[in-house]
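Entries read chain and fold; for instance:
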Amino acid sequence: MKAVRHVSLYMVHEGFDERTNRDDIALARTQVELPLGTTVKRVIIKRTFPRGAQLQVAGWGLFDEARYLETSRLQWLQQSFKPKRACRQYALSPGMMCVENDINKRPSLGDSGCGLMANFVQQIGLVSFRHSGLKQIVIYMNVSHYYDWILWGARQLICTKV
């Protein structure tokens, strides 16, 4: 069962470019706080992240794109970094990173914005898009790259009266 929270304010990165997906990151403030517990947890964000960590991504996107099948259960998958030098061929903007996985074990339609986690505790990325020609290549926004913007934006959203 999904919990629904209405967004009272949101902030899109000022450099966001819909054509290139540059700076594809936003923050949202909900009208009601999310209740922390067994199914809702805080995540850690830092200026750096462990390159050798185990990676996971979770989301409610389609679990079968061919038949357009959805689920009401959160799904998660292991992920793995593609070497930095190999990502250069995709002409990524600053703040982007790429992950390559088996074609059947990668974020799906509806997973944009889902978190890429390191060791299940530190959020290091956000699903942005899949490479148009290579569906197994997923491009993430690097949360560490946006650390200062996230702190600044969170203060703006928290300190603004609605």
In short: The first strand starts at residue 7 and ends at 12. Residues 7-158 form a domain with the Thrombin, subunit H fold (CATH 2.40.10.10). Strands lie at 7-12, 26-30, 55-59, 75-79, 96-100, 115-118, 122-130, 137-142. The first helix runs from residue 84 to 87.
